[in-house]
Amino acid sequence: GAVVSQHPSRVICKSGTSVKIECRSLDFQATTMFWYRQFPKQSLMLMATSNEGSKATYEQGVEKDKFLINHASLTLSTLTVTSAHPEDSSFYICSARDWADEKLFFGSGTQLSVL
Amino acid sequence: ILNVEQSPQSLHVQEGDSTNFTCSFPSSNFYALHWYRWETAKSPEALFVMTLNGDEKKKGRISATLNTKEGYSYLYIKGSQPEDSATYLCAPKPYNQGGKLIFGQGTELSVKP
Q1: Chain A, 50-69: which have a CB under 8 Å from a chain B CB?
Q2: Cβ within 8 Å, pair A41-B105
Q3: Most exposed residue of A33, A35, A61, B62, measured as fewest CB within 10 angstroms of its CB?
Q4: Rg (CA), chain A
């Protein structure tokens, strides 16, 4: 099956620094990628949808200047948490879909801890 | 916002037991309902995508049914094995949500040998 690689799997950073998370589709072209955030014991919450070559569409309440999403190629999307603060500590996970398939292929997630 | 509820939140069964859990959502028009299986430290993996009322899909010992009129889907596991231990997520895809999936909190299944 299709593989989505997400890195890093875990990151610890100081407050005020920026963190970049990469999501790559390894064996298919991901026309659409999704970024989710999950707090403990809660469901996956969609943050934004990105289509290759265009600006991401952010969900209500998600700050686009805080969570920068780039989808410059059909195999790579990045999420940058800018000037991270402790309240940004969370689990972030990406998923991708190609044009021919309804189902999503997920990365393995990134646990972000901001000190 | 569509409210998706999964029950139970967690389930502990013995190897060999059959089990089932529920995904409930307000009955409304939607494109599809997805089920994903998420093992610890791994990526969520798609199990089923169902679109029609009355749909029933099967993959090995796991099967799922969909009732769009009453707004629920059941996932069944026959003869649970320890390797079935995972969190099972359901996600409807409503017409009025711009094509995105709305995930439930999941049912965490633990199968003891």
Answers
A1: 57
A2: yes
A3: A61
A4: 13
A43:B106 CB<8 A:
yes
Residue B79 DSSP symbol: S
Is B80 within 8 Å of B18 (Cβ atoms)?
yes
B20 min Cα distance to partner chain A (Å): 20
Tokens 């990469």: give the residue. A22
pLDDT in tens, chain A (115 residues): 689 999 999 999 999 999 999 999 998 888 889 999 999 889 999 999 998 888 899 999 999 999 999 988 889 999 999 999 999 999 999 999 877 778 999 999 999 999 9
CA distance A18 to chain B (A): 25
